[in-house]
Amino acid sequence: FPVTISMEGRLRWRPTLLLYMLSHGFMLASWNALHWDDWITYAGGRQGTIDAFAECSRCTIPFRGEIEGLLIAPGPWLMRLLVFVFFPIIALLTQQFLRRTQWLQRDEETIIALGVLFLPMFGARIALINFQYTISLLLFVLGAWMVLSPRQVTRLVSLVPIFWSMFTQSLQVFVVVLIVVLLAKLVVRQSAFTLDRAYRDWETAVLS
């Protein structure tokens, strides 16, 4: 991604968003189309969506039927547009979360954020049924970024989006990663451990 990363390792958002539009913008071409399992859930409009999720409420975010019922009312285009807009926000929050860990170089943070933005994690993100995964991922990275905030109030509030995102089962494994990061930050803070210091100690032990 040389065109999207500056010499300082910063993300160049203008060319990045242009490439994002070229790579994923075609999902907006099917503006009001319903695909695959979407017919079962969304073909009935707002009330049909609410009823569909009321019958199957396991492993789904609270009030999903009401939320998606409101969004589907104007047409499928709104949910599809939100998915398209949310992924750059997810990439940005991922980058900011990594920056708050203070473990990676600026260019490494940027490369990971670009991977989140461009890699086809949800190859079928055009399908409305996957809207929950996008929302849950957005909530999780938002909570992860907030939990590393220097402000205690922000850290407490971060539990809300993290908790809400955990209703999507496939994201629950990321809580383990977040716990490991928090424990590692605690160890680093208490022992003044750094990767540079660990490398120097290892180098001294090997060469001496």
Please provide a brief summary of the model.
This protein is an all-alpha fold. It contains 11 helices and no strands.
Explain the layout of strands and helices.
Blueprint (H helix, E strand, L loop, with lengths): L12 H12 L13 H5 L2 H11 L8 H9 L3 H26 L4 H13 L12 H17 L4 H6 L1 H7 L7 H19 L3 H13 L1
Helix pairs in contact: 3-4, 5-6, 5-7, 7-9
Task: Describe the model.
The model has no long low-confidence stretch (mean pLDDT 76). The chain contains eleven helices and no strands. The chain has 208 residues and is mostly helical.
How many helices does DSSP assign?
11
The overall pLDDT, averaged over residues, is: 76
Q: What is the straight-line distance between the termini? A: 41 Å
Number of strands: 0
The global form is flat
Query: Describe the biggest sheet?
Result: none
The ordered string of helix (H) and strand (E) elements is: HHHHHHHHHHH
Any idea what the radius of gyration is? Answer: 20 Å
How much of the sequence lies in strands comes to under 5%
Percent helix, as a range, is: 55-70%
Give the tags.
208 residues; flat; mainly alpha; 11 helices
